[in-house]
Amino acid sequence: MRTFERSLPMSLLKAREAVMKKFIPHLRAHDLSPQQWRVLRALYDSPAGLEMSALSERCFLLMPSLSRIIQNLAARELVMRRIAEHDQRCSIISLHAQGRRLVELMAPESEARYAHITTVFGYGKLELLYELLDELVEKLEAAEQEHHPSSHELLD
Amino acid sequence: MRTFERSLPMSLLKAREAVMKKFIPHLRAHDLSPQQWRVLRALYDSPAGLEMSALSERCFLLMPSLSRIIQNLAARELVMRRIAEHDQRCSIISLHAQGRRLVELMAPESEARYAHITTVFGYGKLELLYELLDELVEKLEAAEQEHHPSSHELLD
DNA sequence: TTTGACAATTTAACTTGTTAACTTTATGCT
DNA sequence: AGCATAAAGTTAACAAGTTAAATTGTCAAA
């Protein structure tokens, strides 16, 4: 059996934790979770607002999580929601003025921390890492389509 | 502001999700969460058993999560706990016979999926990815020590 | 127009992540 | 010995991840 240490999910998790540790104190100082910040950032880039499902995709959050997060952010008046005219089922979420100000207030510090990581790790390596991660996802998802896993016959 | 897409934590998360998707059906078929599996795997490699805190480190789980997971696995008779003689505060967790059998039953399929990922992505790239991830963690943690973050003065 | 399938979200229920508070046992100092 | 302090785990409380079921709105065909 492969040694326990070489676990890809765990290596990815550890790397993620190490990176997040650089951002979390800043977020916490403004009472935001990483997920809440992702939502605000995504909305900042889409001034017209986004439907829940679009937001869910961009922030890589499942709908139930997003639903709760939006309730929280709406209660804090950082975002607002309105119902789409074209389809009453859709809410359209957009940044409230206060939310916009918050993003603008926090962005410089956030960028600075990104810059710090880039410096420490090296620009080239960071780019390489992004490429490898993207390619890994791509290849795994391609493999998804092809042969629907053989193992299910045995196990499910 | 940097484009929202290039977010290192999110890229790492996506990669992790893509990888996990390959393993989760197999785990679910045996009623195990990824965390529970990590614990069983770690214990399999330490037949003498491990203290909670050692297990916590190896599985990269915080104590409260681990505590609950062990309660669950113990109830299912997959692991057992005894109190250390040298220090009454420490529990020592080890695999129950049934847990050992389960690991041995599941390992081949798990290895096969690993092999599949290696093939699809390429052995060299996978090794490179591991190295980059390790180095990233290392560099970020080194940076931790040096200059205790300047930002705290402003924000906390 | 009504039924029936489908789509967008929310709710529910349960597990895990996370921080802080608490319990019990060791250890070190005086 | 006697007391403060630290260490190992657990418990508590709440946010977030995850799956399934429920809710509400849309759309097309009978």
Automatic annotation (TrEMBL), chains A, B:
Record flagged with keyword Transmembrane helix: no
Domain HTH marR-type: 1-138
Record's keyword terms, sorted: DNA-binding, Transcription, Transcription regulation
Taxonomic superkingdom: Bacteria
GO molecular function: DNA binding; DNA-binding transcription factor activity
InterPro entries: HpaR/FarR, HTH_MarR-typ, WH-like_DNA-bd_sf, WH_DNA-bd_sf
GO-annotated biological processes: negative regulation of DNA-templated transcription
Keyword Transport: no
UniProt xrefs under Pfam families: MarR_2 (PF12802)
Protein name per Swiss-Prot or TrEMBL: Transcriptional regulator, MarR family
